[in-house]
# Entry
Amino acid sequence: MQMSSIVRTTADILFPFILIYGFYIVIHGHLTPGGGFQGGAVLASGVLLLLFAYRYNESTRIVKKTVMKTIESGGLLLFIITALSAMLLGAGFFFNWAASGGMIFGDLVAFGSTAANLNTGGLIPIMNLAVGIEVVGAISVILLALLSGIKEKI
Amino acid sequence: MRRNLSIIIVILMVGMLGVIVSGISFGEPVDHPMDRYFIENSQLESGANNVVTAVLFDYRGFDTLGEAAVLFTAALGTMLVFRRRREE
Amino acid sequence: MIPEQIPYIAVILIAGIGIATLLLKKNIIKMIMGLAIIEGAANLFLVSLGYRIGGIAPIFTNAPDADMVLPTVQAMTLTNIVIGFATTALLLAFAMMIYRKYGSVEANNVRRLRE
# Structure
């Protein structure tokens, strides 16, 4: 079964905007409400829109299962490597060594109500990105597996 | 018989919840020093404006690591349930 | 009870609905839905435990000068939501496998077929 051309065209138009919104939520996780998990869920909803708008065989040509598995594993690996990087400097696991350090994501933050500055947070934005990548991979893999279990493929 | 037992269990559990909840006043949380510390020091120590993100990724990073591992394992298990078998 | 405690009354009602669904229904899909409803009640309970009257969200970006609600319970709620999602996905996969094997998701039919 295939959705009508209205649904397919709407999905094609909306997909880039959903991606942009999800990346915005992931990147601004340390400044505004949101973070890696929420932004990853938004990105995965865009993938779900594509999966439902097209036939199973067509959509799995775009959203490949092996690619999603690689993305998921890579996100978790990036998260662990980011956490391990503090141990190279002699600090403990998960120590936020880049915060207020003057380097990347290292601007100083004053206490109290401040304006949004993207260049703060130390390791937190990198971890947000890693978790966002992992969540979009995991949810897409789950959706693809559940879809492949249906006998008459939608 | 079994249905009546189920209904009695539901009433008992709801009553227990009610007893627990009736002792808590809404809007005046217990002023724990941990939460005060997070609110006052998260900006200076981790550099993040969002206190919830600072708690999630800095102070309680191990928690988030376990959470990501649970999500990874769930995806792995779902994939394993729907794997393609040889004999089919 | 006092009308100020409406969130807690809602928690009791939602948890009661979830437990009743879990115990009284025989359909496996409906039982999974009951489990998800209980998770929702737990999340609402956690969030309303940390609420402070007149408090703002614990985010310092252009924040007004007011007290903040407790941040730790909100982080725990986020953890709970993600783990609830993972368990629900796994349970739905098992339910689909049961349907494929037995042709039904009623717990009674599955048990009779096994004997």
Notes: Chain A touches chain B through 48 residues (CB under 8 Å).
